[in-house]
Amino acid sequence: MTVSINTAPISPLRQRMQHDMMMRGLGPHTQQDYVRHVKRLAAFLGRPPDTATEEDLRRFQLMQHESGVRPSTINGTVSALRFLYNVTLRRRDLARALVVTRIVPRLPEVLSVEEAARLLQSAPGMKYKAALGVAYGAGLRVSEVAHLKVDDIDSTRMLIRVEQGKGGKDRNAMLSPQLLELLRMWWREGHKRGVLIAHGWLFPGQNVTDPISTRQLHRAVQEAAEVAGIRKRVSPHTLRHSFATHLLEQDVDIRVIQVLLGHSKLETTALYTKVSTRTIHAVSSPLDQLMALMEGKAPTGSADAG
Questions:
Q1: What pLDDT, on the 0 to 100 scale, is given for residue 304?
Q2: Which is catalytic among the residues 118, 161, 171, 263?
Q3: Same domain (yes/no): 252, 155
Q4: Domain Tyr recombinase spans what residues (predicted)?
Q5: Catalytic residue at 157?
Q6: Rounded CA gap, 219 and 146, in Å?
Q7: At what angle do helices 214-228 and 113-121 cross, to 10 degrees?
Q8: Which segments in the chain show pLDDT lower than 70?
Q9: Do 62 and 141 have their domain in common?
Q10: Residue from 16, 59, 161, 237 carrying the catalytic annotation
Q11: Is residue 166 annotated as part of the catalytic site, yes or no?
Q12: Which helix (H) or strand (E) holds 137?
């Protein structure tokens, strides 16, 4: 069977933009995202993006809104195109024509501990059970899970090394004994099947030289949720949200959780206080106080005057 290999040359504009991103220290995932967003603009225009006008960019953004593109994707596109026009093309007039959209904050979907257990048990195979176990047991982003290598698991120090996470930052994530055992089970199976190689990807894709795709992990989570009978909207990021929320409910200091998640701002981590059931249950409803007064009982926490 003949395998077709795409040998199309990279355009000078794309090459220059990639060089600009590299010189400014943008992470590989950010670079891939920026290139993808620029390619979408080029596809919309039907011609190179350096020929765009302000009206072209207006029509492109209007099309995104009318097509129901998520605000986070629209804003990601704005970041990519602003880089292209501000840095690579030095067309600040075009960069100013790009408008970010307001994102309405939404509370993250969180699984209970029992639901998380059912989800992992329903994962389609040992590789996915281990990968989802890392997302929940260490709180990693889906792209971070996908790009782990065998050597990133430090069983001596009980740490997972995350290289080039969000923002191009390296950090250490926790490695619990149970997660280590789960990874060892996957290592034994993967090694036996010949899909795990020394210094290679911890979760290889269909080709052992490539990492598993984030799309595959999304499909695995959705399949596991269906088998487990979980009706919530679940994605790999739901496991990260659940990791943070469950730690908070165990009274782990929020600053520790911030470090484990790799958040730059504490305010981002503080979002989980809004979904922690323990935080909510710790507060007495004013209705309880009112009912106690109506029944002639002393309100909770009140003291006799004396």
A1: 47
A2: 263
A3: yes
A4: 106-285
A5: no
A6: 13
A7: 110
A8: 1-8, 105, 164-168, 267, 271-291, 297-306
A9: no
A10: 237
A11: yes
A12: helix 126-138
199 counts as catalytic = no
The active-site residue out of 40, 129, 240, 241 is 240
Active site residue 37: no
Which candidate, 9, 8, 59, 26, places its Cα nearest to that of 166?
Answer: 26
Cα angle for residues 236, 213, 85 (degrees, 5° grid): 95
Angle between helix 236-249 and helix 126-138 axes, rounded to 10 deg: 40
Buried/exposed 82-101: b ≥16 CB within 10 Å, e otherwise:
bbbbbebbeeeebbebbeee
**Out of 16, 149, 166, 218, which one is annotated catalytic?**
166
Q: For position 25, which CATH number holds?
A: 1.10.150.130
Residues 204 and 130: their CA atoms lie apart, in Å, by: 12
Where in the sequence is the domain holding 89, given as residue range(s)?
12-95
Asked, for residue 23, whether it belongs to a domain, the answer is: yes
Q: Rounded CA gap, 304 and 285, in Å?
A: 21
How would you class 289 by CB atoms within 10 Å of its CB: exposed for 0-12, middle for 13-18, buried for 19 or more?
middle
| Residue 303, domain member (yes or no) | no
Distance, CA of 31 to chain centre = 16
Domain boundary among 51, 66, 95: 95
Tell me: do 48 and 133 sit in the same domain.
Answer: no
**How many distinct structural domains can be found in the chain?**
2
Q: What is the CATH number of the domain that holds 209?
A: 1.10.443.10
Same domain, 70 and 179: no
Q: According to the model, what pLDDT value does residue 28 have?
A: 83
Q: Is residue 256 part of a domain?
A: yes
Active-site residue, selected from the candidate residues 14, 127, 129, 141: 141
Q: Is 151 exposed, middle or buried (0-12, 13-18, 19+ CB in 10 A)?
A: exposed
237 noted as active-site residue: yes
Q: Cα(34)–Cα(52) distance, rounded to whole angstroms?
A: 17
φ and ψ at residue 139, rounded to 5 degrees = 70, 30
Regarding whether 244 and 178 lie in a shared domain, the answer is yes
Q: Is 127 noted as a catalytic residue in this protein?
A: no
